[in-house]
Design a protein that fits this description.
heterodimer; A: alpha+beta; three-stranded antiparallel sheet; 14 helices; B: alpha/beta; Amidase signature (AS) enzymes; eleven-stranded mixed sheet; globular
Chain lengths: 462, 465
């Protein structure tokens, strides 16, 4: 029988009977396609998701035709190093590409050009609100083509689209530092934000532009050694599914371990409809990829000066921006969270915030109105227009006091129970009266002025 | 009627076209007659372009002025069947041309046909060709060598004015030696590999096979240069090889390699004789000690098989060609061996040790070249072997190429020029001349001096300047 999760009082925090005994050990491997103009090893256009037809962005190189040779994309290499530097990684000044061999119809050469023992970047970290995750390595490789299983003329066929073949793909591998499913998702989201701030990847998860893998195992609470097994949950395309899949695995593995069963070393997939992970491939017949240095691509050497020049191109990163906004403008972190999108967006907000501050406008109040869509965002309208509309919204029509008092008195007379309720302590009745009165006043009357008038009149009737 | 124009060296052909004495069309026609007369027996060409199919005799304003050039059939030509002498690709028409073909055509080379080779260039005999072996035109009881056996035979049989081959370790120089022609293996990275069906990617070097050293210089100038599609090509400028040929070799220091190796009793005396000739021209010659080439055989066998197993992975029959069941025995052996040497737990013992040993050879050559301008050795331990000789020896090629493998794994340039002719068998021996990387000019200079001061070149009588 499966052990059921027990919900405790705090919403969102899930505690299972079993994971009081076991703790999660989890590391992640994330793949992201770089948005360079051309592919990793040829001049073909890198735009697989917007191609009008299959196999239009192809050439002898990315089709793996006999005699074709790869030439590495410099931009992709520099962007990989840029990400590494942004994550505090060390950079291998001497690096190379290796061939990773396996047969699959979407892999035209019979090997993938990847990096084996000398990745461009290693030993970095990402901070999340749920804890630090150390980066083990970041390497650069090429994406595969895409298989399409279709029925053509009543016959089931498998077709291959090579538009994606040899698109630059980075793989970011963490240490097993992730402690909860939510932590895994927080890590993934933070990584995606950084990629977007660096402006090197679109991270379109639906399309497969960013793909998540979690290596999940459990160990008894208090144990510090790594477990002697791991299951790999592959090709997850949303952070929600990632959390669900890890939580499911925690329960599944905890139950097996509690019953003294062995958790098998395997690759599993996530079925989002049935909400279960399922076995895909046993790791017992683990493939031997027969890595060796690709003789077609000379080793790559960087100087410290070149690395420094790449470092210069790194913009302010999301965490730094958030801290700065919080300190400078007193904005709540949860509000900042909603506008941390990419460097362009942040620059627009920065411009807006600076202008607002210069005019003595409360940035926090301004942002609240943008998020509640009372005024358009600077992305939609531009910083000047946003500020203008906010000021317009803040503007109040001064209502003649005599006229206001007349209306207040009229409403109070028509609703004699208000006074009684007010004096019996039901102060919220003012809200009702305000609604009644504001309806009879010009649109932009100052609510504070109205409120004051009501209280004065009520007190007068005492 | 034949005008014997097929016998012209490239240099002579160009001169005669230039002077109006003859035309490229006539030379092409004569060479094609040679093919028609001899190809059935010798099996030199796998496909040919008849004179009537040629449209490009009109433009004489090029280096090669439309002279007929034979091309090894592992070099892709757009929309022309390119087989690598394997039935896996029996009907394969590439969608693009190799860079060296673009260069050849740019310089006015007219491709007369595609020549036979050991399947996938695996071998030194042409006997692994899945379309039958080529016979040596000098004596059809013998093999032409390989893998560029077809290109060497085409030159020897005057079926073209010049040819292009590819060498991974001996595949240009050894058949040149066995066929009594000139074969130049350029420095790795001097001529683009883009569009050459990869054999061993870290040593593959396309280059010319010609009647004379001067012809090789003319051809190399047309093929060499940086290619943005091949990241292993050099940015270095291509020297004017033809004019540099005239430089005197007086004062050059020449090291004689491998005189201490037993088993070279046939070839070594001729190398010493060649050294005497070079000495008489003012060079300083000395015997040198070098790393035993038997280790190069091990290094090459391991590295090359590993790369072969990887390079042949794309031939899955899904997008082009036939499936993997069409691979011949030799390709299968190499795939199996290469796969094994890259396996986890074995790569450390084989592939990695081989690469470290390869570095020792590179260091040994740089040691030698710190004292000598060029090095010489026999090209092959022997004359051409009789037909069938490769069939019982899986290491046939490696042993035939033993003396060339050290310089090949070090990426160095080398040339083979005839240095002896056996009147009885009509077979030749070759002299291998090597230089530091990018110094093809030196190799050509010494080879040219040797060639014009000896009588071993069979075209010198017909083409005397």
């Amino acid at each position: 029988m499966r052990m059921k999760s027990i919900q405790t009082g705090t919403p969102g925090e899930k505690i299972t009977m079993t994971n009081q005994k076991y703790q999660l050990v989890c590391g992640m491997e994330v793949h992201a396609e770089l948005k360079t103009n051309s592919k990793m090893f040829c001049g073909c256009k890198n735009d697989p998701f917007h191609a009008e037809k299959p196999n239009i962005y192809t050439c002898p190189v990315c089709l793996g035709l006999p005699g074709a040779l790869p030439v590495a994309n410099k931009q992709a290499i520099e962007w990989t190093i840029k990400l590494g530097l942004a994550l505090g990684c060390k950079i291998n000044l001497f690096s190379k590409f290796d061939r990773k061999h396996y047969f699959y119809p979407d892999l035209p050469k019979g090997y993938q050009i990847s990096q084996y023992d000398l990745p461009f970047c290693y030993d970095g970290k990402i901070e999340t609100e749920l804890g630090t995750v150390r980066i083990h390595r970041i390497h650069l490789e090429e994406d595969t083509g895409k298989l399409l299983h279709k029925t053509v003329n009543g016959e089931q066929v498998s077709l291959i689209d090579f538009n994606r073949s040899s698109v630059p793909l980075i793989e970011i591998v963490t240490e097993p530092d992730i402690t909860t499913a939510a932590h895994a998702a927080a890590y993934g989201k933070q990584l995606r934000k950084i990629l977007q701030y660096l402006d090197i990847a679109n991270c379109d998860m639906e399309q497969g532009g960013m793909r998540l893998e979690a290596n999940v195992s459990l160990r008894p609470v208090g144990e510090t050694e790594l477990p002697n097994y791991k299951t790999e949950i592959k090709n997850i395309n949303s952070f929600r599914f990632l959390e669900q899949a890890i939580d499911f695995e925690i329960d599944r593995q905890a139950e097996l371990l509690a019953n003294n069963q062995i958790v098998s070393q395997e690759t599993r997939g996530w079925n989002s409809v049935k909400q279960v992970t399922y076995s895909q491939r046993s790791k017992e017949d683990a493939e031997d990829y027969r890595y060796f240095p690709d003789p077609d691509i000379p080793p790559i050497r960087f100087t410290e000066e070149q690395i420094a020049a790449i470092r210069e191109t790194i913009p302010e990163l999301p965490s730094a921006i958030a801290t700065r906004w919080q300190q400078e403008y007193g904005i709540e972190p949860n509000m900042i969270e909603q506008i941390i999108v990419n460097t362009t967006v942040s620059r627009q907000y920065d411009k807006l915030f600076t202008n607002a501050k210069n005019e003595g406008i409360s940035v926090a109040s301004l942002l609240k109105n943008i998020l509640s869509k009372k005024v358009p965002s600077p992305l939609e309208a531009g910083a000047e227009q946003t500020l203008l509309q906010f000021k317009e919204l803040q503007k109040t029509d001064v209502v003649d006091d005599t006229q206001l008092i007349a209306i207040v008195n009229k409403v109070l007379t028509e609703n004699p129970d208000i006074s009684a309720k007010y004096f019996s302590g039901q102060k919220q009745v003012i809200g009702f009266v305000m609604g009644q009165i504001l309806r009879e006043l010009p649109k932009k009357s100052d609510p504070a002025q109205v409120r004051e008038a009501i209280i004065t009149q009520l007190e007068a009737t005492k | 009627m034949k005008n014997n124009l097929h016998k012209l060296t490239l240099k002579k052909a160009l001169a005669q076209i230039q002077s109006g004495e003859t035309t490229a069309k006539k030379i092409y026609a004569d060479c094609f007659s040679q093919i028609e007369a001899g190809n059935k027996d010798l099996n030199v060409f796998l496909s040919t372009n008849s004179p009537t199919s040629m449209k490009q005799f009109e433009n004489p304003e090029t280096t090669l002025q439309n002279c007929p050039i034979a091309v090894k059939d592992n070099i892709c030509i757009e929309n022309e069947v390119t087989t690598a002498a394997s039935t896996v690709l029996e009907d394969y028409k590439p969608a693009y041309s190799a860079t060296l073909i673009d260069n050849l055509k740019l310089h006015g080379g007219a491709v007369i046909g595609k020549t036979n080779l050991d399947a996938w260039a695996h071998g030194s005999s042409t006997e692994t060709s899945q379309f039958g072996r080529t016979l040596n035109p000098r004596n059809p009881k013998y093999l032409p060598g390989g893998s560029s056996g077809g290109s060497a035979a085409a030159v020897a049989a005057d079926m073209c004015t010049a040819a292009i081959g590819t060498e991974t370790a001996g595949s240009i120089r050894q058949p040149a030696s066995w066929c009594g022609v000139v074969g130049l293996k350029p420095t790795y990275g001097r001529v683009s590999r883009y569009g050459v069906i990869a054999m061993a990617s870290s040593t593959d070097s396309p280059g010319p096979i010609t009647k004379t050293v001067e012809d090789a210089a003319i051809m190399l100038a047309c093929l060499a240069g940086h290619d943005s599609k091949d990241g292993t090509t050099t940015n270095q400028a291509v020297p004017d090889y033809v004019s540099l040929l005239q430089k005197s070799i007086s004062g050059l220091k020449i090291g004689i390699m491998y005189q201490d190796i037993p088993g070279l009793k046939i070839a070594n005396p001729y190398v010493l004789a060649a050294a005497k000739v070079l000495e008489s021209l003012g060079a300083k010659v000395e015997l040198v000690n070098a790393l035993d080439p038997k280790y190069a055989v091990s290094v090459y066998t391991i590295v090359q098989r590993a790369e072969v197993s990887s390079n042949l992975a794309r031939f899955d029959g899904i997008r082009f060609g036939n499936d993997r069941s069409y691979f011949g025995d030799e390709a299968r052996r190499r795939i199996l061996l290469g796969t094994h040497t890259l396996r986890k737990g074995y790569a450390e013992k084989y592939y990695q040790v081989a690469q470290k040993t390869r570095t020792l050879f590179i260091e040994d050559f740089s040691r030698l070249f710190s004292s000598y301008d060029v090095l010489i050795s026999p090209t092959s331990p022997s004359f051409a072997e009789p037909i069938g000789a490769s069939e019982d020896s899986v290491m046939f090629g490696e042993l035939a190429d033993m003396l060339l493998e050290p310089s090949s794994i070090a990426g160095l340039p080398g040339i083979s020029v005839p240095c002896f002719h056996d009147e009885k068998t009509n077979l030749y021996l070759g002299l291998n001349i090597m230089a530091p990387a990018w110094r093809e000019d030196l190799v050509l200079q010494v080879a040219h001096a040797y060639e014009i001061n000896t009588d071993w070149n069979s075209w010198r009588k017909d083409n005397n300047d």
